[in-house]
């Protein structure tokens, strides 16, 4: 019997019911609202990629790789702030923390619209990242409050499907705004979407944190929660692998404009089409994953997807080398889409596996895991993106290296036994374990 199956049949249910009957949105609206809140991050990153040339022109930027910093500075603020929102939400609740974070995001969007210099714009992007982190972290915590195990993976897959489908439309939205007006209006669109998210969430989503799981907001409590995450083998291992795979995406996003738009292939206004085709593969994969995960389990799908990604990344690099770093555009789109497709079987499941043992500290756990994976992804993406040399070879090397290291980490985490056949897990201690009937299993160091 697999670990997941054993957990489902022998462990107490970890789903927490509210003290009162659930008065929030139904399943479809819950997924849509959660995905919309998470999707603001994708819009914030991807919608202004077509504006890089206009921004470089307005601020007299000569280095073609420098506009990439607008992506990575956002991710830096996004990553650093995540360590705050989880513990804060474990103390005051999910609603106040998310509403406060969204207000910071709104302020950053206004600053970006008014930026008088590139350096000021970088600062505004960092503020946006600090605010945007609330939606990403608290959406995961809210899902964990309501679901567990394969049900959580299913919900996360639907949320990730929307989250990953956004890049299909976001660059096109940015390109359309550019065609109609100034690049600053793109930040105005971000502002408008954040207002919609804030109003929808405030109107429809009740507090999901069970009163029994409120924790004091102090350094010792936060440090204790982080120590629990770091000491839980499955959580630490799968979070590391998730960060490395997200690094692949960040490397691609940072390099995409230089590769498709103004650099190698000179697509211009067709850049959003190429970007959307590749992003679409991720959306299709997450939809398939959501339909299959309850049948086959998180580990089988994610391990298979990761192994397939490693093989595809090697084949992709071989193709890139064969064409001296400038393969025919259709072949490049096909191989990148295949990599993103396979990658998308791993990421939502890795996130769910990392969170599953941490029910009693879901907010702090989501915060630390998000902090850790985002900073790791931003560092890896920056390293690969800034290596752009007029060819796609650095990107191909990045995919091979990051996916290979991720596979090695997963093999270590599972003690060499993949596809759900690893050693039995035992419960990770939590400060309130056993209260309200909540318990889960995790591998420990």
TrEMBL record:
<keyword id="KW-0812">Transmembrane</keyword>
<keyword id="KW-0813">Transport</keyword>
<feature type="transmembrane region" description="Helical">
    <location>
        <begin position="305"/>
        <end position="323"/>
    </location>
</feature>
<feature type="transmembrane region" description="Helical">
    <location>
        <begin position="273"/>
        <end position="293"/>
    </location>
</feature>
<dbReference type="InterPro" id="IPR020846">
    <property type="entry name" value="MFS_dom"/>
</dbReference>
<feature type="transmembrane region" description="Helical">
    <location>
        <begin position="358"/>
        <end position="385"/>
    </location>
</feature>
<dbReference type="InterPro" id="IPR011701">
    <property type="entry name" value="MFS"/>
</dbReference>
<dbReference type="InterPro" id="IPR036259">
    <property type="entry name" value="MFS_trans_sf"/>
</dbReference>
<feature type="transmembrane region" description="Helical">
    <location>
        <begin position="185"/>
        <end position="203"/>
    </location>
</feature>
<feature type="transmembrane region" description="Helical">
    <location>
        <begin position="69"/>
        <end position="85"/>
    </location>
</feature>
<feature type="transmembrane region" description="Helical">
    <location>
        <begin position="122"/>
        <end position="143"/>
    </location>
</feature>
<protein>
    <submittedName>
        <fullName>Drug resistance transporter, Bcr/CflA subfamily</fullName>
    </submittedName>
</protein>
<feature type="transmembrane region" description="Helical">
    <location>
        <begin position="224"/>
        <end position="253"/>
    </location>
</feature>
<dbReference type="GO" id="GO:0005886">
    <property type="term" value="C:plasma membrane"/>
</dbReference>
<feature type="transmembrane region" description="Helical">
    <location>
        <begin position="27"/>
        <end position="49"/>
    </location>
</feature>
<feature type="transmembrane region" description="Helical">
    <location>
        <begin position="329"/>
        <end position="346"/>
    </location>
</feature>
<feature type="domain" description="Major facilitator superfamily (MFS) profile">
    <location>
        <begin position="27"/>
        <end position="416"/>
    </location>
</feature>
<keyword id="KW-0472">Membrane</keyword>
<feature type="transmembrane region" description="Helical">
    <location>
        <begin position="97"/>
        <end position="116"/>
    </location>
</feature>
<feature type="transmembrane region" description="Helical">
    <location>
        <begin position="391"/>
        <end position="412"/>
    </location>
</feature>
<dbReference type="Pfam" id="PF07690">
    <property type="entry name" value="MFS_1"/>
</dbReference>
<dbReference type="GO" id="GO:0022857">
    <property type="term" value="F:transmembrane transporter activity"/>
</dbReference>
<keyword id="KW-1133">Transmembrane helix</keyword>
<feature type="transmembrane region" description="Helical">
    <location>
        <begin position="155"/>
        <end position="179"/>
    </location>
</feature>
